[in-house]
């Protein structure tokens, strides 16, 4: 439109010709700005006015807003300003009278409005024209023309100005209609798309549910549809149970969030706001910016959340939930999809509920009587018994009476296998074969592993041919149920029921089994508590005795600083306190363990001779394991194959090996033995390890001064060795990187030859395989280049000279901006100093940091990157800040390591070498580099450079 306005002023025109040109130009105007430019230019030129302005009436009809000016300096104070629509001012008066106002001579305007200059703060023009604009009797605003000389408005000029104002009003009305029409078209298009998308989801779910009547299966199907429609999301189906919303079904991705999954399984309070709102309104609830609300812990990863209440028989029975991870606002079509799936699930659940009620009514009375009798008998038995395995067996017998023919088996994990501890009934033949050794590998038995790890009962309605190798009902002909057996909040084992025929486990069946499981848990906990009280009484007496002896020994530790004397006193204490048969102290001399101190006796001449000769380190497993791990090694039942002394150790019942760890490593090992008693009680273990830790502290105190002196003398040697090793490592990296290029080149060449050889016979899968090889070789070349660059940075000498950091940053920014022309990037480059350094390598530093800032702000609508410098006494601190994705500050120390990355490659490309290169370059300039950041809130990378000397 600017070219059209300019065209109106190229040659002298009559008022009529100007009006014709204005009319043609206004026909093409598409915005208010276009209209103002077209109208003001001819008006000023036709009458030799010095300035013009347009003021528009706001939507409320009470205020005028300055919309455009021409002839005034930018941001200059003018007479015509925003203000209320009052009759005392010229603009308001012209609109009220519905006629133009002309002030032709100097002073006319001020005589009519004497306070005008005081109210606006500007000097009144010599002459002025105020032209009102109306559209369909509605006031739009005024056009104002100012003159620096007196001006008598002829009839032709007044007619020209009235027509110009009318054409401007019409053009403004047409722009408003066009804008409103575009908005209506966009809204209608969005609604059509949302309706179509919702209909598509509704049809897909309707086809999926078919005639399914199982509630959880229906919920899982709904969750599957939502997972397909919203890939980066989580879905859940929750039911109200005893005042808590408990998880019934969920999308598989929740297994990647174990803390959230456990929280949902434990149940959310009924009054959780997002659930309470859905419960009270019985309408879908959509929440934007979910993470900021903090309603449910461990849900910070979600941007939005929605709940759909599922109403059955007039009550909200369950809620379908959907959380989107990378979206902060709910789109209209996404809401429509969720509503469609929720409505479909509601209808399917209603159908299922009615079917279930009809079936349940005919079976309820008979089943109830049977269950009540069984529960009464079981409850009596569980109260009378205290033996854990007898309690489990009585539970198995009671439950089998309620189920079709089959067997019940109870398993506990031992040494990586499932051990069958109790069985009642005849198991199906396939199950018997799978358990012929009474055990199965722990990880392989999925039917046992799932309830054991999750704490949730596992059910299977019928035989699964693909699970034949799994125990606990796997491979059985019919239904199967496996319950976790919990004691003290931890899973002790699993109780399985394997049936000969298929069994559809109803909600009532599951409730009965899980209630029995809870009763068994209470009975086992009561039995364990009874046993624990008896053990605690015995241990209390031993603890008091141990405390008295330990107090005396601890006092002695502060009086003696000789290491060997400290160890001898510890042997005396343990030998007497724990009533041991043997207590020895070993030290490793060469490849043999030698006894340096002993209390008690060996027990056999052969064992004494073996110790006097020294025990070989390689074959004496109990000493070797304690030495290598640095942790106590207990054998509650001594294994004669442990240390190659089987012919001399038959009399030993239990051993304990306690390594003494000092600042220099494992100094030696305390070996303790029992000849007539097996096992180490918790009190004994606590005593042993307390004495060990106290003795280690005393030995450390004795050795500390000696080690400090040794460390000082060795520091220079270690520093020199580290420098040599670093130089050798860089040379090795450089050599390896060059040597790797040849095989990578061969891979690419032979891959290309293979493509040519196969020609048109190359199928899709083979093409994909070859492409994967090409891409992998390409990534290898990238890593090789990065390694070479890293090595080259350390090897090449620095060429020091004056470097203008400001000019360097501007040059790098210009290069990088060429690759991000499609993005909005706000740069804030503060004044930067001139320093002494190597310009080529410092360019690499700046390029790496600015490129990273651009990369990790890719997800922001407007990227903000700031480069600044802070002056210190002897150095400059240069910082690069961004508003990108940031990082977890706990892992900041990994950022500058080679191949260390804190973001996934599929999210942000890179080799993990750039920041390592930055650190090396800055270190070679006698500076240091560090980073700080917050997830989702950007990052700051800083480095120091010395000031010129």
TrEMBL record:
<dbReference type="InterPro" id="IPR029016">
    <property type="entry name" value="GAF-like_dom_sf"/>
</dbReference>
<dbReference type="Pfam" id="PF00512">
    <property type="entry name" value="HisKA"/>
</dbReference>
<dbReference type="InterPro" id="IPR050351">
    <property type="entry name" value="BphY/WalK/GraS-like"/>
</dbReference>
<keyword id="KW-0175">Coiled coil</keyword>
<dbReference type="Pfam" id="PF13185">
    <property type="entry name" value="GAF_2"/>
</dbReference>
<dbReference type="InterPro" id="IPR036890">
    <property type="entry name" value="HATPase_C_sf"/>
</dbReference>
<dbReference type="Pfam" id="PF02518">
    <property type="entry name" value="HATPase_c"/>
</dbReference>
<protein>
    <recommendedName>
        <fullName>histidine kinase</fullName>
        <ecNumber>2.7.13.3</ecNumber>
    </recommendedName>
</protein>
<dbReference type="InterPro" id="IPR005467">
    <property type="entry name" value="His_kinase_dom"/>
</dbReference>
<feature type="domain" description="Histidine kinase">
    <location>
        <begin position="735"/>
        <end position="949"/>
    </location>
</feature>
<keyword id="KW-0808">Transferase</keyword>
<dbReference type="InterPro" id="IPR003661">
    <property type="entry name" value="HisK_dim/P_dom"/>
</dbReference>
<keyword id="KW-0597">Phosphoprotein</keyword>
<feature type="coiled-coil region">
    <location>
        <begin position="692"/>
        <end position="728"/>
    </location>
</feature>
<dbReference type="InterPro" id="IPR004358">
    <property type="entry name" value="Sig_transdc_His_kin-like_C"/>
</dbReference>
<dbReference type="InterPro" id="IPR003594">
    <property type="entry name" value="HATPase_dom"/>
</dbReference>
<dbReference type="InterPro" id="IPR036097">
    <property type="entry name" value="HisK_dim/P_sf"/>
</dbReference>
<dbReference type="InterPro" id="IPR003018">
    <property type="entry name" value="GAF"/>
</dbReference>
<keyword id="KW-0418">Kinase</keyword>
């Amino acid at each position: 439109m600017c070219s059209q306005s300019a065209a109106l002023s190229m040659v002298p025109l009559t008022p009529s010709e100007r009006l014709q040109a204005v009319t043609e130009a206004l026909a093409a105007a598409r915005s208010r700005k276009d209209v103002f430019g077209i109208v003001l230019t001819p008006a000023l030129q036709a009458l030799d006015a010095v300035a013009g302005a347009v003021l528009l009436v706001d939507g409320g009809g009470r205020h005028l807003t300055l919309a455009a000016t021409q002839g005034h300096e930018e941001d200059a104070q003018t007479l015509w300003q925003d203000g209320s629509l009052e009759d005392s001012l010229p603009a308001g008066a012209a609109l009220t009278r519905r006629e133009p106002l002309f002030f032709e001579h100097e002073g006319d305007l001020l005589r009519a409005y004497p306070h005008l200059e005081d109210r606006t703060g500007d000097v009144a023009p010599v002459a002025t024209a105020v032209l009102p604009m109306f559209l369909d009797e509605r006031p739009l605003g005024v056009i104002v023309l100012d003159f620096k000389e007196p001006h008598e408005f002829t009839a032709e000029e007044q007619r020209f100005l009235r027509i110009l104002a009318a054409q401007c009003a019409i053009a403004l009305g047409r722009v408003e209609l066009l804008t409103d029409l575009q908005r209506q078209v966009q809204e209608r298009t969005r609604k059509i798309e949302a309706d179509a998308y919702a209909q598509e989801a509704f049809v897909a779910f309707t086809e999926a549910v078919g005639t399914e009547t199982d509630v959880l299966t229906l919920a899982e199907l709904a969750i599957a549809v939502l997972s397909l429609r919203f890939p980066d999301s989580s879905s859940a189906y929750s039911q109200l149970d005893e005042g808590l919303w408990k998880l019934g079904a969920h999308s598989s991705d929740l297994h990647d969030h174990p803390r959230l999954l456990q929280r949902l399984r434990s149940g959310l309070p009924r009054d959780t706001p997002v659930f309470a709102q859905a419960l009270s309104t019985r309408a879908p609830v959509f929440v934007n910016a979910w993470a900021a609300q903090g309603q449910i812990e461990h849900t910070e990863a979600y941007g939005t959340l929605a709940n759909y209440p599922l109403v059955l028989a007039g009550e909200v029975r369950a809620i379908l939930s959907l959380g989107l991870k990378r979206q902060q606002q709910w789109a209209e079509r996404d809401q429509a999809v969720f509503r469609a799936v929720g409505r479909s699930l509601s209808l399917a659940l209603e159908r299922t509920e009615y079917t279930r009620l009809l079936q349940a009514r005919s079976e309820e009375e008979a089943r109830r009587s049977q269950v009540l009798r069984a529960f009464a008998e079981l409850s009596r038995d569980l109260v009378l018994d205290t033996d854990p395995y007898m309690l489990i067996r009585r539970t198995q017998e009671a439950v089998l009476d309620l189920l079709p023919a089959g067997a019940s088996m109870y398993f506990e994990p031992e040494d990586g296998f499932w051990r069958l501890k109790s069985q009642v009934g005849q198991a199906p033949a396939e199950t018997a074969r799978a358990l012929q050794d009474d055990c199965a590998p722990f990880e392989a038995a999925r039917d046992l592993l799932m309830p054991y790890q999750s704490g949730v009962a596992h059910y299977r309605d019928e035989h699964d041919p693909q699970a034949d190798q799994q125990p606990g009902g796997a491979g059985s002909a019919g239904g199967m149920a496996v319950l976790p057996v919990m004691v003290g909040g931890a899973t002790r084992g699993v109780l399985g029921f394997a049936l000969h025929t298929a069994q559809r486990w109803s909600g009532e069946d599951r409730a009965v089994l899980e209630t029995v499981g809870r009763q068994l848990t209470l009975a086992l906990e009561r039995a364990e508590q009874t046993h624990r009280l008896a053990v605690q009484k015995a241990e209390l007496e031993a603890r008091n005795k141990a405390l008295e002896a330990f107090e005396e020994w601890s006092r002695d530790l502060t009086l003696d600083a000789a290491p060997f004397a400290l160890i001898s006193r510890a042997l005396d204490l343990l030998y007497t306190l724990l009533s041991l048969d043997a207590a020895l102290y070993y030290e490793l001399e060469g490849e043999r363990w030698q006894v340096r101190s002993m209390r008690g006796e060996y027990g056999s001449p052969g064992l004494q001779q073996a110790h006097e000769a020294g025990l070989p380190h390689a074959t004496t497993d109990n000493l070797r394991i304690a030495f290598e791990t640095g942790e106590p090694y207990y054998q509650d039942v001594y294994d004669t194959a442990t240390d190659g002394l089987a012919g001399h150790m038959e009399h030993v019942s239990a051993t304990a090996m306690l390594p003494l760890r000092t600042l220099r490593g494992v100094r030696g090992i305390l070996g303790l033995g029992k000849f007539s008693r097996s096992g180490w009680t918790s009190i004994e273990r606590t005593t042993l390890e307390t004495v060990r830790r106290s003795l280690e502290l005393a030995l450390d105190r004795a050795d500390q001064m000696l080690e400090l002196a040794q460390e000082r003398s060795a520091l220079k040697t270690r520093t020199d060795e580290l420098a040599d090793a670093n130089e050798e490592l860089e040379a090795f990296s450089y050599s390896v990187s060059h040597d790797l290029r040849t095989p990578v080149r061969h891979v690419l060449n032979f891959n290309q030859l293979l493509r040519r050889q196969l020609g048109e016979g190359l199928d899709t899968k083979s093409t994909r395989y070859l492409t994967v090889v090409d891409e992998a070789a390409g990534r290898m070349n990238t890593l090789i280049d990065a390694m070479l660059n890293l090595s080259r940075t350390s090897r090449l000498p620095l060429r020091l000279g004056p470097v203008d950091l400001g000019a360097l940053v501007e040059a790098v920014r210009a290069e990088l901006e060429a690759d991000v022309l499609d993005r909005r990037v706000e740069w804030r480059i503060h004044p930067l100093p001139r320093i002494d350094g190597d310009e080529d390598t410092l360019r690499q530093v700046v390029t790496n940091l600015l490129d990273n800032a651009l990369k990790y702000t890719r997800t922001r609508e407007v990227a903000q990157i700031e480069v600044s410098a802070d002056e210190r006494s002897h150095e400059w601190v240069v910082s690069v800040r961004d508003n990108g994705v940031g990082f977890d500050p706990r892992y900041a120390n990994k950022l500058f390591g080679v191949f260390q990355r804190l973001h996934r490659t599929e999210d942000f490309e890179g080799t993990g070498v750039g920041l390592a290169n930055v650190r090396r370059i800055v270190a070679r300039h006698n500076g240091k580099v560090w980073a700080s950041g917050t997830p989702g809130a950007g990052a700051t990378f800083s480095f120091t450079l010395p000031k010129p000397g």
